Amino acid sequence: MVNSFSFAKFIKQVKFRKQIACMMKNILIINGSPRKKGNTALMGDYLIKYAKKKGFSTEKIYLYDYNFEACIDCRACKKGKLLCTVKDDMQQLYAKIDKANVLVFPTPIYWLAATGKMKPFFDRLRPYFGNKKLMGKSAIVLMAANEGENDSDLTKEMFRRSFNFLQINNIGSITAKAYDVSDVDK
Known about the structure:
Distance between the termini: 6 Å
Structural class: alpha/beta
Strand order of the largest sheet: 2-1-3-4-5
Mean pLDDT: 87
Order of helices and strands: HHEHEHEHHEHE
Number of helices: 7
Largest sheet: 5 strands, parallel
Shape: globular
């Protein structure tokens, strides 16, 4: 079960306190689910509710609302300004990411992995490896999985390694055992 109490407990466990909280004025929730009212959306909403009580600003976006292509390995992000030059909606997402202090990644688990929209999104974060603009930001992963923790270990590892490469502070993750809409509320 995931509810506002679980989030409060989680936040305490990962030392989401003054030294971290002072940096976390802008939280960006990047939802990888195609369902805007599904379990991962509910998990993100619980975090938003908690964050707003603490005075943080939040923005929630759904990756399925944006049209962006997979990385084409053109390697433009490895030269010059170290930015992606592909002209699609990812440019809007880069601007939002740059403004945020904390990135939250809710995703349901589909076949032991993040959704098909989340993976190409992460591939397109490649410019940040070179330009280091994510260094020092923090991230939280929220996952809904039919079998809970048993289904999420590979996805947690993908996020952990990605955060490591991008020098993002990995605050932690929550996995809810959830399949049907609103299972996180049970």
